[in-house]
Amino acid sequence: MVGYVFRSVRWAIVMGLVAVLGVAPFAYGAMSAALPLNPPTWYHGDHWEWTGPMGNTVVMEVASAATNGTYQLVGGAAAFAPNGEWGTVLLGQREQVGNFLFIDWPLTANKKWQDVGSKYVFVWRVGPVQSVTVPAGTFSAVELLCSVLTPPAGNPPVQQQVGTGFAWYAPSAKAIVKIQFGPEAAWPAGVRNKALTLTKYTLH
């Protein structure tokens, strides 16, 4: 009887929170990102749409999956993998500064990696799990912080930070849901201080 009363009281508290906050019970736990994170598995017909930093619409859809973990995208990259060059897919071209966003799986706390572009070095670091709201919804997402550095020069070699940026990966969307570019001149003029945001998606 005591256990029954305890469960009833606990359920009443949960439902009270639902009524007051307007949220579904257990929804956050079911959708919450947690480190470490492995690369997603995509399926035929998975579809994402983003609004680009210049107001353009960016679409990615999976046409087929290969056994080696790569995917054919509709009208786009062949043999694209979840750790591929997201700048190519989401912005339609590689950044003028070279590589922009390559995800080094698995994502673990404070993990760092870098890509050497044609002009700059991009150093990425895994940040905290955050709640991120974009037109497609509110997601529990892992923050990825980017530092844009000049190539090592001099003796001893010295690098200068010339840019900053952020990206957020949401496992429930199996994709990057937002990219925020910094205001610095290291970024192409059309994306400075602007963002790319997920507007809608369909998963299978």
Using brief descriptors, characterize the structure shown.
2 domains; disordered N terminus; YmcC-like fold; alpha+beta; 204 residues; nine-stranded antiparallel beta sheet
Largest sheet: 9 strands, antiparallel
Count of extended strands: 9
Mean pLDDT: 82
Helix content: 10-25%
Radius of gyration: 20 Å
User: How much of the polypeptide forms β-strand, as a percent range?
Assistant: 35-45%
Structural class call reads: alpha+beta
Distance between the termini: 44 Å
Number of helices: 3
Specify the oligomeric state.
Answer: single chain
Strand order of the largest sheet: 3-2-1-9-8-7-6-5-4
The CATH topology of the largest domain corresponds to YmcC-like fold
* Helix-strand sequence: HHEEEHEEEEEE
What are the low-pLDDT stretches, counting only 5+ consecutive residues below 50? 1-30
What does this structure look like?
This protein is an alpha+beta fold and 204 residues long. The protein has two domains: 1-31; 32-202, YmcC-like fold (Beta Barrel), CATH 2.40.360. The chain is built from three helices and nine strands. The protein has helices at 2-21, 27-31, 86-91; strands at residues 47-51, 57-65, 71-73, 112-116, 121-134, 137-149, 161-170, 175-181, 195-202. A nine-stranded antiparallel sheet has the order 3-2-1-9-8-7-6-5-4. Strand 5 (121-134) and strand 6 form a beta hairpin. The longest helix has 20 residues, at 2-21. The N and C termini lie far apart (44 Å).
